[in-house]
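Field: COMPLEX_INPUT
Field: COMPONENT_COUNT = two
Field: RESIDUE_TOTAL = 914
Field: MODE = joint
Values follow.
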Amino acid sequence: MRVLILHFGKLNVNSVIQAFHLGEEMTAEGIEVVLCGKGDTGRIAAIGEPGFETIGYGGLDRRLRRWSRDPRETIICAWTPRELVRRATERAAAALDAPYVVHLEDNEEHLLSAALRRPYEELGRLPAKRLDRLCGEDFIHPLHYPRLMEGAAGVTVITEGLNRFNFARRPYLLAPPGVDHERFRPDLPPAVSRQELGLRPDDFVIVYHGIGHWANLRELFSLYLAVRLLQRRGRRVQLVRLGSTKPGGVDPRTLQALRDGIPDVGDVPWREIPGYLALADAYVQPGAPNDFNRYRLPSKLPEFLAMGRPVILPACNLGDELADGEQALLLREGTALEIAARIERLLDEPGLAERLGRAARRFALEHLSWPENAARLAGFYRDLLASHGLRVAA
Amino acid sequence: MEFLAERPVISLVMPTYETDPAYLREAIGSVRSQTYPHWELRIVDDGSTSSRTRKAIRRAVSRDSRIAARLLEENRGISAATNAGLELCNGELVAFLDHDDLLTQDALLAVARAYEEHGFDVAYSDQDKVTARGEITDPFLKPDWSPVYALGAMYPGHLLVARRELVQEVDGLDGAFDSIQDFELLLRLSERTERIHHIPETLYHWRAIPGSIALGAEEKPGVTELQARAVNAHLRRHGIAAEAAPHPSHPHRLRLLPLAGRERPRVSVVIPARGEAERAVAVRERTAAPEPEVILVDAGPDESFNPAKLANAGARRASGEFLAFLGEDTEVTDRDWLEQLLVHLVLPGVGAVGPVLTDPGGRVAAAGMAIGLYDPAVPVMRGFPADADGYYGSLACAREVSAVGMDCLLMRRSDFESVGGFEEAYSRQFADLDLCLRLGEQGLATVCAPGPRTVSHTTDARRREDFDVLDRALFVDRWWERLEAGDPYYHRGFLGEAADYTPSPFGGDRLELAMREAAR
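Field: COMPLEX_OUTPUT
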């Protein structure tokens, strides 16, 4: 079996971490995996050295021509229905006569609506040409993406809620991210000393990594503010930030003022992230249980849990499976004041942080595994290929 | 079009009288070229003596089966003619179109879309003017439904649309108010429904020619008096103890005055301060009898100054039914200042009132606050002469705003308690704006009144000292979605930076604005 993964992003973005691990596990099982992403394929080195092939979109058509002369049982994984991926998927499916699976990891309708600040239904009413311009290649296109979903042989979702967008009720598989329990473990030594980052030994440190942009800026804003409010109350809390932050829409002066004094390490290759996470006393995934968070599961959450520190996260998704106050602390509103209150609870309640950390690690070991996820996914692909073969034969 | 589940028929009613056939043809042409096809046009000629007008009408009827006309033998006035037109209507919605005005090409599509999305009973759109030579001028970008503002300025204007059934229920237009008949109708409709929707798009070009109010407020004499009669009748029907009187300086503007002989309810004045706050405390002597309870809450030398905390402490000590919060640098000079504010607080749905705040030089310091995600809180009309009309009466008339500051803010004690007072997590600023937005969540409006004369002596140095970026961030964090949606009383078609009603280059195209803001 050959699996062609068509990813929407550059090969070092967070979302590729999942594709990377699934690719590694399937390759180990003898499956040929090819991952196609935007731009320089060498970027994947930030995550690791893959045992499978990576290609750029520039070389995709050439590859499809070659494969069409050498047909093998191939399944295409459209990693999100975004325009770049949709176009490539439809080309690949036609060229190879291969079935495709759409992988959903976000509420794409919400993302488009949030970027353009108009209700999705209203956007759907715009003329096609205007939509072409607004949606570009990085968003779904309201007129095209239902057709992609309709033509899929199957759908994989990282949260149950995302199956709502499986309009044609195709076979689906829940494929949440896992975590490498060895790479992310409680006893890792920090990559840098606290002193190097200007932190005091008794600071209560939160580490947050990942890009801040229009989709999650509201949440990141709350996290920055929570820390700054706690500092104003005299609490020795500090946030260490990894990854870039792009202001958009929100008043940039205010955002910059919040970021002043927060140690900002900048972009760090993913393989070095565990060492920075090891600096932390706790982790916060900011956000409210809303239309954005209800449908996503950031890959950093399994990583947080596996590190064996207390985790504060929205009361949805993985938060639905974690007992509040026993395995994690949950956010109901996601505001800065609420995040600050949760952190203060960790500071003030003796033994709570330690208890939550142990329970988090236990949860990761029991529920978040790459090999198991990849095996289920490969089985799902095989079933779809088998039924596709039957349809073709018929 | 294909996205509309409901496609209601919209009946346009157009009374004509001695209409220039060229304008009439243009007006009818603007209807016939609508992208939304489900309309009917009902023309009623109000006894024109000009055969050219009637000929133009007959020709229009013969050309399009959706057009019907009635030719009255004698001139009965615009309301009677419009009512005669209403009798010919079959649509679910009726819209009013003057005989020489123009609809934009997508006007009725925008109405149908808004009707499907919001299910309104009444709607009005933005408008501009069209000159005799066809030039488009004077865009008027309006706020969302603002019933208090409508008491002072006939701002809703065109395009006015209503459910036909509701218009029938109130017996259509009233001939006693010819020349402001559609505004008077809106007042009566507003007594039957709260579902009044603003369509934030320019759908109507109002013809500005001699004899039309569009050209100037003095083109039709006696309008302001008629406007006052309509508003006073409306206030009486509501049982509101206030009277609308023509503004002394600005035509077509009314000011609300308290009815004489009414006893003022007990008001407690709360002043959070860093010391004596002499100017503010002087209200005790300067206020007309009965003397209000004045509570000065001093931070004391050892405590940091937190106005929200101090104001809450003062409110707990207060005994009044109403609470007036004054800034430590605020000076109120009018003896009847409380009455001037209270008269707006008795209006239905009003939760807080503050005056236009001026600097010691008589320039506006803030006529309420405009809110937005990019510019979280901007004083409206800052730097304008306080006695100016503003943007369509925004300084001369009381009107709804998103928030007013604690420099001078009057509210019911019961409302203050029901929203939990000021949020004390703010250290210096924004607790007042936060309070106003929480009132808004409970359906209570905040009003900025043109008076009393209220001077803020806050110096720039003090302002800088009090600025706290964490307060600003906390305000953004607590109200992000609300700020992102834009200020309902300050059109998104204006630039937000200065809140001085400067149109943005993208006009009312919210999508383009969103893209521009996202790019910033």
